[in-house]
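Field log, afternoon session.

UNIT: design team B
ACTIVITY: writing a sequence onto a fixed backbone
BACKBONE:
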């Protein structure tokens, strides 16, 4: 619950800053709809809540901050955690301004996981932490309709790395294949977000 509260507070804080930035741009006769709030609609399928705030700061450039919180299990490994994804996007269209149209992006990943394994035979619980960081590139397209509804479809490819820190038990108690899925090594980053722009 604390992680969810922290995530919500971070998103609201960035949203407030973004709204203020958009107001300044509007008073300078800049195009409207420079801020987009959105959620990844694929995240619930992996028991994750994921949201983003994007702010266009130049005709072809925007900055985005993503945040997520998760709690799921894989085989006998239970994990919970949160993470952040800062991103800079360059929009390619000559006829549309950011944040509309096709784009290429560079992003970073900062992840923090807590892992537990219940050994029913021994009657013990093993714990570990895993905090990988990484970076990658993405391509995508964002549609913003007259109603303000925004749809963003993207695919990224990145590399994450970090070390497992075991608090109790041994590394053999944790499925490293699982860690490759959520954190380390080369990782695909697909996404489909829906939100509102203003």
């Amino acid at each position: 619950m604390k992680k969810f509260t922290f995530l919500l507070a971070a998103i609201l804080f960035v949203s407030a800053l973004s709204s203020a930035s958009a107001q300044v741009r509007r008073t300078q006769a800049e195009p409207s709809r420079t801020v987009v709030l959105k959620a990844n609609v694929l995240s619930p399928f992996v028991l994750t809540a994921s949201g983003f705030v994007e702010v266009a700061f130049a005709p072809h450039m925007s900055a985005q901050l993503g945040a997520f919180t998760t709690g799921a299990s894989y085989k006998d490994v239970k994990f919970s955690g949160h993470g952040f994804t800062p991103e800079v996007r360059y929009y390619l269209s000559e006829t549309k301004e950011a944040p509309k149209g096709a784009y290429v992006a560079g992003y970073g990943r900062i992840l923090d996981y807590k892992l537990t394994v219940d050994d029913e035979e021994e009657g013990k619980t093993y714990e570990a932490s895993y905090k990988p960081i990484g970076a990658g590139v993405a391509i995508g397209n964002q549609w913003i309709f007259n109603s303000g509804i925004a749809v963003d479809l993207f695919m990224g490819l990145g590399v994450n790395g970090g070390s497992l820190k075991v608090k109790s038990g041994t590394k053999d108690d944790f499925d490293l294949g699982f860690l490759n899925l959520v954190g380390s090594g080369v990782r695909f980053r697909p996404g489909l977000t829906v939100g509102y722009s203003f």
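LOG NOTE: Residues 94 and 171 are 52 Å apart (CA to CA).
NEXT ACTIVITY: expression trials, pending approval
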